[in-house]
Amino acid sequence: MKNYAFVFPGQGIQRVGMGREIYEKYPPARDVLDKAGEILGLPIKKIMFEGPAEELSKIYNTQIAIFLSNIMVYSAVKDAFEGDPLFVAGHSLGEYCAVYSAGCLSFRDALKIVETRGRIMDEFTPVGSMAAVLGADSGEVKSAAEKIAASGKFVEAVNFNSRKQTVIAGTPEGISEFKNILKARIIPLRVKGPFHSSLMKIAQEKFNEAISGFYFGEPEVPVISNSTGKPSRSSAEILKGLREQIKSPVLWVDTVEFMKANGVENIVECAEKSILSAMVKDIAPEISAINALSLLAGSEKN
Length: 302
Hints:
By secondary structure, this protein is of the alpha/beta class. The protein has helices at 20-25, 27-40, 44-50, 53-56, 59-77, 94-101, 107-124, 138-150, 172-181, 201-211, 235-245, 252-261, 276-283, 292-301; strands at residues 4-8, 87-90, 129-134, 155-160, 165-170, 185-188, 223-224, 231-232, 266-269, 288-291.
């Protein structure tokens, strides 16, 4: 496959039983999860495979589990491709998978950074929630959020996922008021905080203190930043993006449009469950969006 990019999803793929099938089927995926358990000293395999759901849904465990599930898929498929991808990108937490896949971090350091991120967000995430707004223009969503924020109830447009979906984050009062202001289909998300909003400022500051102790090498492949929608081509640029990511919007529409404009014809989603592929098809229907495991399944039949 030529002119391709790897992408990695974030929240939304977690479920009890995640990773079990690829763990049992693909030795490289098994190595990833077994090594992670040794590094963390945490029964993360049991939490992913058996739950309970309440344990898996804790921010700390969820973030580690999502990272590992994506990297298990990536480890199983990466050697099936000739040549490097043009770009790598991840949505929210998935950006850390992209940074790892670009060769900037050792597996141990990438895992420890995700663990640190989860621990800090567990401790410093304020009360709040998120909701997906469907069928409204992103400009309308931003305008409504700004109007509500000006009245003293906090809400922000934070994830620009596709032309049909923008995610908002804020206080419970802000989210509730938003539903009264904009007549659109609004679906609450199963998350425990106003992620990617400016309410996450303290968590971002704490994370930035912790991340300074890790070594980032130069990327082998450009990593498209969530906060800019543009490629980071050096370790300094990647680190700068991660220092803003927790409290900044995810510019996924910009990310896909950049890839389209710069030669990407195929996007391969490294995940058990396709989350980003539908967004890609909405933003740039000319791009082929493929789940990595479906490629493996096809090659096994041949």
